[in-house]
Write a structure and sequence with these properties.
Blueprint lengths: L13 E4 L6 E4 L4 H11 L5 H5 L1 H15 L9 E4 L5 H8 L5 E5 L2 H9 L3 E4 L5 H4 L4 E7 L8 H11 E12 L21 E2 L2 H10 L2 E11 L4 E10 L11 H27 L2 E5 L16 E6 L9 E4 L2 E6 L10 E4 L5 H10 L6 E3 H5 L1
Amino acid sequence: MKILGANFPDGETYIVSCLECGLVYCRTLANQQDFLTYYTSVAKSPKYYDMVGAEATRNYFQHILKLIEPYIHTESKILDIAGAWGELGEYMAKNGYPNVTILDPCEECILFAKQKGLLTVQTDSTEMGKVLQERYDLIIFNHTLEHILEIREAIENACKLLKDKGHIFIELPDAEEYANQSLPPFTYFTYEHVIHFTVHDIENLSKRYGLEIVGWNKYYKEVSRYPSFYVILKKNSEIKPITYSTVGKDSIKKYIAECNQQLHQMLEPYEANHEPLILWGIGASTALLLEAFSQCNVEQIVDSNPARQGLVFQIGNKKYPIVDPESIRSSRATIFILPGAYKNSIEKQIRDLGFENNITSFTMNQM
């Protein structure tokens, strides 16, 4: 799959499984610095309040606070790794936990969090051990670890910064449940997620780094439409041997097979009638879908994000630069909205721009 961003090397990314433990991850030519550049320039984290609204955001943060409250008190020092705009930290401060430090590599995010009166550190998880001298009662990795190539450095640093009786809260997409969700194909194969975790993988992580699982459960993260799980780890310094499991590999293989079947069923009519298509919305979770349209009559690829315009993708034997919406040249072509999560907002944008083209999407085809 092609990774969006001029700083990434031009090479293929493969999803592989570790022969030692079974962890499923992306083998890519990109390194941690490539992703840091991407996250601090091309793809800054969206604000929860803008993305899903105030009520859904508050409900989600309330969910997290309820899980971690048994392990903290009002004086606890808390580190939110990749805390972005400080939204969770602000919520915790307003609910009696003021000593939250937002750690993020993005200068814009850090400045925004500072304006809210929050403690901040501009660095990333692989460098924080060198930058921070403080030790913390609780360290939060909230949908963060799946984005980190250098996972060992991140966990080693967290253990170094954790107090002897401290805890780590981790919440992640649950790869074991991908195939059990009715969402557009390959939704969970965003290239931003470089590791696909199961609970078994976190059990291995805890064994390797002298941590103990004191609480965990699965649930559905509605604000991002992800099957998820959380774990709460306690520092105990007892290193144990890791174990191998095929649960991650088997789950991912099942998910791939189901996605391919969905794509075939959805796109077969367009392949047969050669209906002209305009593909709209190329992002981290949709770039992988483009090759599936190789037998379709694709006229253009459109995205409203200026950072993506001009990037070139190949579909079959043809190359397509991503163009801005004003470059659409056909009123006959059906506009195919690729992102499932943003389908409604993109459809509104299309109509607000005055386009009267027929609109479809994977979500519509699933109904």
